[in-house]
Amino acid sequence: GIFSSVSCDRAKMVAFLIVSCLAFRASPWPVRSALTQRSPLTMQAAERSSWPALDDGRSLEEIHKMADAVFANLDADGDGSITNAEVRDFLSKFVYTEELVVKIFSGIDVDASGDLSAEELREAFVKFPALRTAPGLGGLENTEVRSTWPAADDGASAKDIYAMADAVFANLDANSDGIISKAEFSDWLTKYNYMEDLVTKMFSEIDVDASGGIDPDELRAAFVKFPTLRTSPGLGAAVN
């Protein structure tokens, strides 16, 4: 793609780690007995995680804070619960297949209610450490997993990136209807000497659901995945 595509190997590895962690939620990982003999940190990891070898040793307070931030991102309507549709819509903007989204959701939804509560997500982030570095989830704070071009990532926090994307969205959404049309996108960027062919490619990359319009979440996700947007003329550079 125009911004450099996500590595297939990385996507497969992320999928493998997440699904593996979820798959082992009902039974201890074989290395647990060895880990518990090493240090208090690895003992803690062995007790709380489905895959202790992947546990980064963060405190529960830090993990809960991360989970709460992710919950706020996924709870699109702000009703205090995350639906399957909200998870699917959000994660489809990153490297996730429909099958993987279903597995992630069912693994976190421990009461099988069809919705994720804040407490369920907190528990999942403790128990399944791969979630903490997964693109679109905990990986929003990790430039190595969130960006298609980590070397170009400026290390800005997800909060700052979202604020920038929202400011850019306000610039491009000329009629303030909550959607950036292809015409609005083109009209704005041609003022900054973008060629029409480039504008078309950029629009198609950002419009991940191919709806013909870019919504705020799509632009946010693009600013996370494609760090060059944050310094591009008329985009991130226009609000810095």
Automatic annotation (TrEMBL):
InterPro entries to which the protein is assigned, alphabetical: EF-hand-dom_pair, EF_Hand_1_Ca_BS, EF_hand_dom
UniProt entry keywords in alphabetical sequence: Calcium
EF-hand domain mapped to chain residues: 62-97, 98-131, 194-229
Pfam families documented for this protein: EF-hand_5, EF-hand_7
Kinase recorded as keyword: no
Domain of life, per lineage: Eukaryota
GO MF terms, alphabetically ordered: calcium ion binding
Keyword Iron on entry: no
SUPFAM superfamilies, per the entry: EF-hand
SMART domains reported for this sequence: EFh (SM00054)
PANTHER family: CALCIUM-BINDING EF-HAND FAMILY PROTEIN, CALCIUM-BINDING EF-HAND FAMILY PROTEIN-RELATED
Protein's name in the database: EF-hand domain-containing protein
Organism: Prymnesium polylepis
Top-level taxonomy: Eukaryota, Haptista, Haptophyta, Prymnesiophyceae, Prymnesiales
